[in-house]
Prior knowledge:
This protein is mostly beta strands. The chain contains no helices and six strands.
Amino acid sequence: MREMEFKMEREGLVKPGDAVHVTEGVLPLSWYYTIEPAVAMSANYTNRERLKTRDGVVTEVRTDESGYTVVARFEE
């Protein structure tokens, strides 16, 4: 089990309990994940931190100074 945080700009796009699918994006030395359809984006991760699965469940949505943070749980 693994939890990851994603930054979301607008309220109400996902809620706790929602099933989500993420896509993986590639940068020169890292990877990032996007909850589809372009709902929220993760931080950058190294090769050894990459997700092994692309489907998860939202466990929490919290408000912070930069918008909203979505916490999703993935079975690995």
